[in-house]
Amino acid sequence: MAQSNGPSTIPIVDFSAFPNGGKEEQEQVARQIDNAFRQVGFVYLKNHAIPREKVDECFSWSKKFFALPMETKMLAPHPPSGAHHRGYSAPGVEKVTQHQYEKDDIAKSRQVPDYKESYESGNVNDDSQPNIWPPEEELPGFRTFMESYFTECAALIHRILDALSITLALPEPGLSPTHSKSLFQLRLLHYPAIDAAELKNNKRSRINAHSDFGTMTLLFQDDVGGLEVEDSNHPGKFSRAGPIDDAVLVNIGDLMMRWSNDRWRSTVHRVGLPSPKALSIPGPGVNTEGQRNSGKLVELEDAEGAVVPDRYSIPFFATADMDTVIEALPGTWGEDRPKKYEPVTAWGYVQMRMAATYEE
């Protein structure tokens, strides 16, 4: 297990033993993932079986979708609240919060809006949250590809669940059946170009510090960067977690942290300023409200007038079937390690968090 080359200490694990390796190889990979989730809450997986070409194609579709006129994107509108989390959300509609549930606290956090737009889709068989697609004639082939990509990501989630089941010595069939309905969410994210000073001075945010709601998240990022992960042992200290070629970044969510009785960490992370090389001074005619600039690169300390370019990312959020009761799994508690959380259903917890994300 290698370490990433950047400032982050997130481990890199070769996942090729799933499903191709023998029992001993699978156990070794499972231990490496277990250690990463216990120490950091994140892991880079290489050889994860989702083809590079398919990942690249998903980014291409994302850029095509977000390049559509606003009125076209609004033909697939996200409903007003977070209860039905599908469709398109314009910049400023969503505001990510971290365990804020009182209306006054939520309103205060919204004074610094999230400057991003998103499109959500899920399992075609999820009757509780049907997908909201743009008309086929507006973006031919988009729906077909997204449904196919969803299937690839869902299969990877189930393989990781198999690995986690091994680490806890859970009897067959392990954790995978608790996600049998694959009530997952495929999210396309676009952060429009923005003045670096606005991010630096907290006049706008891309995504504030937060933990994810569900059991696990897969993240595919472009090469702009900006993702930062908090050091759980030193709150407020963040390290960059940039992209690594042909690797997917995987992190634990709140439900899995509760389920594992804090064995695995749901680590706080955020998106802010990227590394200095991603900043540039705009050239003539550059539109900083949505178009990638083409000016010269600058160092952060010389960033007056600099622009952070567009950023695209593709997270894939997993959660357990909605009626699954989340309480400490066997092997995560005992006389010397009492249960830390009251039981909660997967659906109840996620909806509580989503209600704080969208205004009603």
Biggest sheet features: 9 strands, mixed
The total domain count is: 1
Contiguous uncertain segments of 5+ residues: 1-7, 97-102, 104-110, 285-298
Distance between the termini: 46 Å
CATH class: Mainly Beta
What value does the Rg take, in angstroms?
20 Å
CATH architecture: Sandwich
Write out the strand line-up for the largest beta sheet, numbering strands in chain order: 1-2-3-12-9-17-6-5-4
Q: What is the N-to-C succession of helices and strands?
A: EEHHEHHEHEHEEHEEEEEHEEEEEEEH
Organism: Paraphaeosphaeria minitans
Family: Belongs to the iron/ascorbate-dependent oxidoreductase family.
Region (Disordered): 1-26, 101-132
Domain Fe2OG dioxygenase: 182-320
Provide a brief overview of the structure.
Residues 120-131 have a biased composition (Polar residues). This protein has a single domain, classed as Jelly Rolls.
